[in-house]
Amino acid sequence: MTSATNQFYIGLNGVTTRVGPDEDREWAYHESLVKADYERCHPGETFGDLKHRARFSKEDMGLLREWMTIAAARAAERDKRQAAVPPRAA
Question: What pTM does this model have?
């Protein structure tokens, strides 16, 4: 299910692109993969602060897009590792 709270779009060279995953559950998962790193790199700031500012700041929208790209790469890597593990015999 999509939610208005996690719908971010960025316009680049006249093309509007969605930032982050479509589903709330997937968004929360991706956010969990980068939230601690973001907050470590930006002391005194939360990932929620970035999401709030991204609604009205192009610079922050670009920063959010970059962090969500990192999250997507981490999620893909984790999925790839899980797929490589053979199922356990019951």
Answer: 0.71
